[in-house]
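Format notes (please read before filing issues)

Several people have asked whether sequences and structure tokens are stored in separate files. They are not. Every record keeps both together, in the order shown below: the sequence lines, then the token lines. Line labels are part of the format and must not be stripped during preprocessing.
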Amino acid sequence: MLSSLAPSTVVGLLGLSFTLGIGLIPMAQAQIIPDETLGSESSTIHPALIQGSPGQLIEGGASRGASLFHSFAEFSIDEGDRAYFANPDGIATIFSRVTGLGESQILGTLGVEGSANLFLLNPHGILFGPQARLDLGGSFGASTADRWIFPDGQEFSATDPQAAPLLTIQPGTDWLGHPGADTGYRGAITQEGILAVGTGQLLRLEGNQVTVTGTLAAPGGTVEVLGTDVR
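Then the structure lines:
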């Protein structure tokens, strides 16, 4: 079932519309492992209290203008666990790619400690389980394309990883997850949870096969489901 909490626009490519002391914070089980492609700007993950509850805080990354880039060998969140990206001052957009060969399984809460947009890229597939939730103030996009291609032609690729390009992207989302004419989608996206973004924001899922049995909500905003096989 595909539904929203307020009027939204749904588009398918096939015509489907649709502090406490150190050591007192329990270690969460999120399987988030940075890769080495960003060198000294690699991500760091550590247990923290987030909004009063234990979770994993993702910091570091490569900052370029108003954009922040993260790169992971694995990115999954177990059921009942919480993983949040830090939102440094001046960052409006957070890009995270997975360069390893495994599917991302988001079975718990994925969030941002702030109002930045969050985009997740994994060409090997993304699963949002029944308990999957979003906790962020901006827009969210998940894609199984192999790269993002930005308006100036630069790329942030999961299959040919390199250091983050010297981009100064404006915080707009009109290009969100654009795979480029010569790349296409690879893995599947399965959405079984309750995924919602804030008022007026954009929520987009795009993959080769996209199966939605859960809820997608963007009150007063836009929900987009794009793929060669949308169910």
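For reference, the curators noted about this record: The first strand starts at residue 31 and ends at 34. The radius of gyration is 16 Å.
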